[in-house]
Amino acid sequence: MSALAHDGLAMTGRQLRRVRNTPGLAVLTQLMPINMLLFFGYVFGSALAMPGREYRSFLVPGLLVATAAGGLMNGMFQAAADTHRGVMDRFRTMPVSRAAVPLGQAVADLVVTTLGTIPLLLVGLAVGWRIEGGALDAVGALGLLLLFRFACTCVGMHLGLLTRSEDAAGQLGASSFVLPLLSDAYIPTDNLPGWLRTIAEWNPISAVTTALRDLFGNAPVPRGAAWPVAHPVAGSLAWSLALVAVFLPLAVRRYSRGG
Amino acid sequence: MTTTYAVLSEGLEKRFGAVHALRGLDLAVAGGTVCGLLGPNGAGKTTAVRLLTTLLRPDGGSARVAGRDLVREPAAVRSRIAVTGQYASVDGDLTGRENLRLFARLHRVRGPAARAGELLEGFGLTEAADRRASTYSGGMRRRLDLAASLVRRPDVLFLDEPTTGLDPASRHHIHRAVRKLRADGTTVLLTTQYLEEADQLADDIALVDRGRVAHTGSPAELKALIGSYAEAVVADPDALAKAAAVLDQLTSKEPVLDRARNAVGAVTTDPTLTLPRLVRELDAAGVPLLDASLRQPTLDDVFLRLTGQPGAASVDSKEPVT
């Protein structure tokens, strides 16, 4: 276990140094959700039943979670790109813990995500979003957000190692854009037709978004929703932990098998 | 004295779908020696290295590397080997120094930063140390690859085509490093397309052909199998027949005429045939001799004879005798 911690830490350092050496990508990634906040918040917000500022408060948690769900695409892309790097084979011929590389990637991603969330939160504050609940609840909300990000990264890494192709990762990544659209991240699900509402409410993004809105005190838990949304904190934990439990071991196994 | 083998494989098999890449590879590399794995593209050299370095699992056969069983103790093998090659390389997004520090840390070397500094210095990379490895030239990149393999001294070092496509200065650098490693007791298994490189560096050569080791021996032994080429260049075309008769007698092989150059030559495996003797006999027979030579065969010749295919470097270096 201590070998895994040692190697995992070294691999986390590797990923963080790579981000530092190529900072442009990280900056661009952060601009996307901010643009969406301004675009959705002012353009769509004016057409919805919710008044503008209320919608923007509703939207910020949704965008936080949608961005976290981007871990799917990011994890996939990085893992697929990594399989073509000669350095992976060097790692495989070294006495390094098999789980260190995937774990290092996911942990480094968490560090980057944590820092990357700050600009979105600041812009959110500027357009009227507030933490309206307790401080402890807010910390809990951020914890749930990061756990969800970690889970999405695990799923992404496994898919990336499976396809081994950056092109495929790009295509799948582009289509993963619809996942938050099929959830309550941008709109309330109450008005959706029954079957669509069921799908949206069983989308893990909905559970986490609802939990964040609840813990930040931005919006109440909707009535009559499916279980993960009706019990958003438990639902978020269950979704995230289940995804990690299934996909992290799969990613580790994929990685050790190599090519 | 019994020889300890750093690499010992018996009947290694590997299939990729319908392709039978290795068909029972038997390889024995004595500890502390440099072994050159030579063969045409597709012969199975790289597959052999990937198996022996735990990157692939064999479908059959067995092997011990650095005294450990390849299949049952891959972790123990990994802690005793290092690999540099077309595939096992460095992270292009990290600087040279960051790469070496990472590998030193993963190998639990004390003072990873100091070790990285030492290696950068030793491989002439100090100036480029803080640039991303992806900006390195081919030669610098290969030197960094090799340095990365040496953060902790391995028992067995695998070099897969370490100098393919490199300029002479970088090749020289790599050759010097290999000689130094051998002097320090590291066993080196080298695959190469350059017969000349194997000739210069290897104690033993294993010729790989169609997934098997076709022949093993020292470069000198392999050349002795082929024999030398005795040749006489005469002043007058009418003397060719006389010279051919002398060569026929000396070598017991059919002499080959090259009328364009007024030359005649024959292959000989007779160790008592020296150049002075060749000249004396031709002179005694009254041959108007302009030039005489007794050329050692190159590994290209060996390669061609033993596998029926020219080596990669042989295409323009061969002198056709017609």
Question: What key attributes describe this structure?
Answer:
heterodimer, A: 259 residues, 13 helices, globular, B: 322 residues, alpha/beta, Rossmann fold, Alpha-Beta Plaits, 2 domains, six-stranded mixed β-sheet, four-stranded antiparallel β-sheet, 14 strands
Structure description:
The complex is a heterodimer of chains A (259) and B (322). Chain A is mostly helical and 259 residues long. Chain A has one domain (2-44, 54-257). Helices cover 78% and strands 0% of the residues of chain A. Chain A contains 13 helices and no strands. In chain A, helix 1 crosses helix 6 (100-126) and helix 7 runs antiparallel to helix 11. The longest helix of chain A is centred in the middle third of the chain and has 29 residues, at 135-163. Chain B is α/β, with parallel strands linked by helices and 322 residues long. Chain B has two domains: 5-222, P-loop containing nucleotide triphosphate hydrolases (Rossmann fold, 3-Layer(aba) Sandwich), CATH 3.40.50.300; 225-307, Alpha-Beta Plaits (2-Layer Sandwich), CATH 3.30.70. Chain B contains eleven helices and 14 strands. Chain B has helices spanning 45-52, 74-78, 96-106, 112-122, 138-149, 168-183, 195-201, 219-226, 240-251, 275-284, 299-307, and strands at 5-16, 19-30, 34-38, 60-65, 68-69, 81-84, 156-160, 187-192, 204-209, 212-217, 228-234, 256-258, 263-268, 289-295. In chain B, a hairpin with a 2-residue loop joins strand 9 (204-209) and strand 10 (212-217). The longest helix of chain B is centred in the middle third of the chain and has 16 residues, at 168-183. Chain B is elongated and about 75 Å long. In chain B, 46% of the residues are buried. The model of chain B is unreliable at 312-322 (pLDDT under 50). At the A-B interface, helix 1 and helix 5 of A face strand 6 and helix 3 of B. Chain B: One of its GO terms (biological process) is daunorubicin transport. Chain B: Its main location: membrane. Chain B: This is ABC-type xenobiotic transporter.
